[in-house]
Design a protein that fits this description.
Length: 148
C-alpha cells in the first residue's frame, strides 16, 4: 500500500481560458469547433439575408415577366448592383444552407447515436461536413456562373 502512495504521479495537464489578444493567433481550433462556429455563422447569414431570399422567391414565381426580370438581375445586374454581386450573395446563401443542413444532420446523428459522441467521430464527421458542404457549393457555383 505504501509503494502505491510513494510512486510519483505524472503532472496534470493545465487547462486555461484563451486570451483573445495573445492566444488567438496561435490557438488551433479543432475541426469540430470550426464546424460549430460555421454552423452559427451560416444560420445568422441565412437569417440576415431572409429579405433577399423572399425577394428571390417572390420574383421567381409571380409571373413570367417577373421571372425574366429575375433572370436579368442575375445576368446584367439590378440598378447599380452588378449581376456578379447578386450571384455571389446567392452563392453565400447556397453555402450557408448546405453547410447548415449538413452540420445539422451531423448534430442530429450525434444526438441519436451514443457511439457518435467520441473525439474521433467528432473529428471525422467535422471534416466530412466541411468537405461535402464545400464540394456541393463548388458544384452549384459552377452551375450558377454558367460553367455547365
Amino acid at each position: 500500500m505504501t509503494e502505491l502512495a510513494s510512486t510519483p504521479r505524472p503532472p496534470r495537464r493545465e487547462f486555461r481560458n484563451i486570451n483573445a489578444f495573445t492566444d488567438l493567433r496561435t490557438y488551433r481550433l479543432p475541426p469540430a469547433g470550426i464546424v460549430s462556429i460555421l454552423h452559427r455563422i451560416s444560420g445568422f447569414l441565412m437569417f440576415l439575408l431572409l429579405p433577399f431570399i423572399i425577394w428571390m422567391f417572390d420574383t421567381s414565381i409571380s409571373s413570367e415577366i417577373s421571372f425574366e426580370k429575375f433572370k436579368a438581375a442575375f445576368n446584367s445586374g439590378l440598378g447599380f448592383v452588378p449581376g456578379v454581386l447578386i450571384k455571389l450573395v446567392a452563392l453565400a446563401l447556397i453555402w450557408a444552407y448546405l453547410h447548415h443542413f449538413i452540420a445539422g444532420l451531423r448534430h442530429l446523428w450525434m444526438d441519436v447515436s451514443h457511439s457518435a459522441v467520441t473525439k474521433e467521430f467528432g473529428k471525422t464527421s467535422a471534416m466530412a461536413t466541411l468537405f461535402v458542404s464545400i464540394l456541393l457549393t463548388v458544384v452549384l457555383a459552377a452551375k450558377l456562373f454558367g460553367l455547365y
